[in-house]
């Protein structure tokens, strides 16, 4: 079973920065890509960014382009999310997710989430 654990959330003022981490553990699993999603109160979960484990190709939601950066450490099976120029609308629970293969577009494993709150 794969376990994903996020960390690094917290309270920050508008314009501030946070760096989220997502560590994976478990046995006998492969990683095709990893992503970050977020869910604000009363809203549906939305895609934020993803990174291919091989090659490192990235994708970002328009709302975070130029402000957020996803990166990975293959040796540690860890993915990071650097968030700069944070806005109150970035307030949400942030989840990391893992996609094991290219066969399905769905993410297979999810973390428990970490709260990010941006004060105005």
Give structural notes.
- The protein has strands spanning 3-7, 10-13, 18-25, 33-39, 46-52, 58-60, 68-73, 78-83, 92-99, 109-110, 114-119.
- The protein is 0% helix and 52% strand.
- It has 120 residues and is mainly beta.
- The strands form two sheets. Strands 2, 4, 5, 6, 9, 10 and 11 form a seven-stranded mixed sheet that branches. A four-stranded antiparallel sheet has the order 1-3-8-7, with no helix packed on it.
- It has no helices and eleven strands.
The overall average pLDDT, rounded, is: 95
Structural class: mainly beta
Share in helix? under 10%
Elements, N to C (H/E)? EEEEEEEEEEE
Query: What spatial form do the alpha-carbon principal axes imply?
Result: globular
What are the segments in which pLDDT stays under 50 over at least 5 consecutive residues?
none
Please describe the biggest sheet, giving its number of strands, its sense, and whether it closes into a barrel.
7 strands, mixed
Provide the gyration radius in Å. 14 Å
What's the tally of helices?
0
N-to-C span = 40 Å
Total E-strand runs: 11
Provide a concise account of the structure shown.
This protein is mainly beta and 120 residues long. It is built from no helices and 11 strands.
Question: Features of this protein?
Answer:
single chain, 120 residues, mainly beta, four-stranded antiparallel beta sheet, 0% helix
Helix-strand blueprint:
Elements (H helix, E strand, L loop, with lengths): L2 E5 L2 E4 L4 E8 L7 E7 L6 E7 L5 E3 L7 E6 L4 E6 L8 E8 L9 E2 L3 E6 L1
Parallel strand pairs: 2-11
Antiparallel strand pairs: 1-3, 3-8, 4-5, 4-9, 5-6, 7-8, 9-10, 9-11
């Amino acid at each position: 079973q794969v376990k994903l654990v996020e960390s690094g959330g917290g309270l920050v003022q508008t314009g501030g920065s946070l760096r989220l981490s997502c560590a994976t553990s478990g046995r006998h699993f492969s990683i095709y890509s990893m992503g970050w999603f977020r869910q604000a109160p009363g809203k549906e979960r939305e895609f934020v960014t993803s990174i291919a484990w091989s090659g490192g190709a990235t994708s970002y939601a328009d709302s975070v382009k130029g402000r957020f950066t996803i990166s990975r450490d293959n040796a540690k099976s860890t993915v990071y999310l650097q968030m700069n120029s944070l806005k109150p609308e970035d307030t949400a629970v942030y989840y990391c997710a893992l996609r094991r293969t290219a066969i399905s577009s769905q993410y297979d494993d999810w973390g428990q989430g970490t709260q990010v709150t941006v004060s105005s």
